[in-house]
Amino acid sequence: MTFFRKALAIVEKDIKAEFHSKEMLSVMLVFALIMLVIFNFAFDVKKQIVNDIFPGIIWITFFFSGLLGLNRSFFIEKNQDCLLGLMLAPVDRSVIFLGKMLSNFVFLLIIEILTLPLFFIFLNIPVPQKFGFFLIILFFGSLGFVAIGTFLAALAANTRASDILLPVLLFPVLIPVILGSVAATKGVFFNLPFSEWSIWLKILGVYDLLFIVVPLMLFEILLEV
Amino acid sequence: MVKMERGRVWDYFLGPLAYVVLSVAIYMVFVVAPEEKMMGVVQKIFYFHVSAAWVAFLAFFVVFVGSIMFLIKRDYFWDGISLASAEIGVVFTTIVITTGPIWAKTVWNAWWTWDPKLTTAIIMWFIYLAYVVLRLAAGEEEKTARFAAIFGIIGFLDVPLVFAAGRWWQKTFHPIVFNNPSGGLDPAMKPAFFISLFAFTILYIYLLVKSTRINLMQRELNRLKDMVKEKIYG
């Protein structure tokens, strides 16, 4: 099996396990929806300001419900020493990282696709003209989030404090992704010319690349016994 | 043990040196350097603000290098340096983000602006605070050092991206309305500026040496304690 195929085997395992119980996805989904309602009341979303705050609302919702998934992804592996089983498999440790990252990515995308229409309906936002661009931003922003998120989740899960540690480790490091995703989304919703916000796609691209490659290199050290 | 004894010579030298240069820096800043025409006396914060920012950045760079060295050599000396440097860096970043608003309130009439440098400073503060928290929560000694080193590398690689993002954020949404204050530094102010830069650097090295030694002693003490415990109970 090639490197990538091995990683896909882990993704397949995660997705099968998740669709058996549907525990995590359902919690993430309900959480994202309740966030939508909370934001509506917290900001008293009106027509005049909706374009200004919508990018922030949507990304905070996705990142926070994504955080639930990340915490879960290595917690279930710690249970009954599944992680040890994975580590004993005759594969590179970096395969485990890539597989876990991709399955987190799939789960986050599922949540995003399911909740996105509801955001447009409940907050009364007209769909922007360049909706395709928004999907690209969604892809790169979520990829950056799960790349560094999966890595730090693995790190946090192996400490004594485990799940409460993750947000404190993750969010400061995530700042470029948060700024990039929100700013680029604003560009799309205000219908600005591409050249004015394309820099944010570049920043997201560099971030994604950096924080996929570096964790791939460091994961071996992280899972040392 | 040898490492410790050899290092001690530096204490006798660095401590007094830090004291002297800092005194000279204070004298230069408050007596020799002229008062800024527009900003008045509050401009003098600038000397310490920028010096602290420089030391903070230097300290986090040392964490980065120490982390890489630890992962390669697995020598706890490098872990001791990284921890010491991270803690000192957090203290100096705290100085940066407290002196900044005091200066800004008088000059810009706003406590805080999301200027890319200030943004980077406060995010660095959060990252290295997380570094310290991670060390407290990690568990065994070996794991603490290893995880901290990993996070020390990740955190430092993030800093340039934070700065780039902060700069573009300001350019897109908050066009720069203030003149850059650090731009034209009057030649008469330069000696005071460079001496305080130098003084802060010496202070950093002194604190680093001291604090690293404390960390290594702590480790040695824990090892001895374990040995005694083993003798009694084992």
UniProtKB/TrEMBL annotation, chain A:
Keyword annotations of the record: Cell inner membrane, Cell membrane, Cytochrome c-type biogenesis, Membrane, Transmembrane, Transmembrane helix, Transport
Main location: membrane
Topological category with respect to the lipid bilayer: Multi-pass membrane protein
GO biological process, alphabetically ordered: cytochrome c biosynthetic process; cytochrome complex assembly
One GO location term (cellular component): plasma membrane
GO molecular function, one term: heme transmembrane transporter activity
Transmembrane regions listed in the UniProt entry: 24-43, 49-70, 105-125, 131-157, 164-184, 204-223
Localisation per UniProt entry: Cell inner membrane
Pfam family, one: CcmB
InterPro entries reported in the protein's UniProt record: Cyt_c_biogenesis_CcmB, Cyt_c_CcmB_bac
Family named by the database record: Belongs to the CcmB/CycW/HelB family.
Annotated function: Required for the export of heme to the periplasm for the biogenesis of c-type cytochromes.
Protein's name according to its UniProt entry: Heme exporter protein B
From TrEMBL, chain B:
Protein's GO biological process: cytochrome complex assembly
Start and end residues of each Cytochrome c assembly protein domain: 20-174
Keyword Iron-sulfur part of the UniProt annotation: no
Keywords: Cytochrome c-type biogenesis, Membrane, Transmembrane, Transmembrane helix
UniProt subcellular location: Membrane
GO molecular function, one term: heme binding
Listed name of the protein: Heme exporter protein C
Organism of this sequence: Carboxydothermus islandicus
